[in-house]
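pinned: reference chain
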Amino acid sequence: MPESWLGIVVSSDYATIVEATVDGADDLTIQSDSTWKLQTGSRAAAYNLMYKRLSDYAREREIDLIVFKESAVPKSGVKKGHLTSAELRGVLMAAATAASTVELISKVRITKTFGERSVDEYVKDDEFWKQIPGKPIRSGSREAAVLLLAVQKKKYD
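pinned: its C-alpha cells
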C-alpha cells in the first residue's frame, strides 16, 4: 500500500513542502508542492499558526513520514537568518512529530549516499525532473523532493 510522505526545507520565513506517494523502491509520485509563508507580525503567533497548519495537514492527509532537511553549520558564520530558520524548523519538527514519523537528512549525507551527483546538481537538472512521475515540480521545490528520493533509496536498498 502506498505511503504519503512530505519533504520539508525551511528558510527563515517560509517552508517549502513537497508531498509524494511512495510505493516501494521504484515508485515515488509527486502529489503537490507548495510554499508556506510565515505570517507577518508577532513571530510567536506566526510560529503557532505554522505548528497548527502542519500538524493538521499531516493528520488530515494521513502523512506517514515527514522528512526535513537537517541544519548545517554555515561556512561564513552564523547570521540572523540561520537562527530564524532554526527556530521555524524546530517549530515544524515539533508539529510533525505530533502527527507523523519524522526523519532528518543532511545535504552532505544525501550527496554521499544518493546517486552520483551532489544535491545541487540534481536540483538544477531539468531532464532528471522530467522522469519523476506526478505533478510537475517547481524548481524551488526540488530540494525538498530530493529529500524524499534519498530516504526512499535508503529505506528500500
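why pinned: The mean pLDDT is 92. The radius of gyration is 15 Å.
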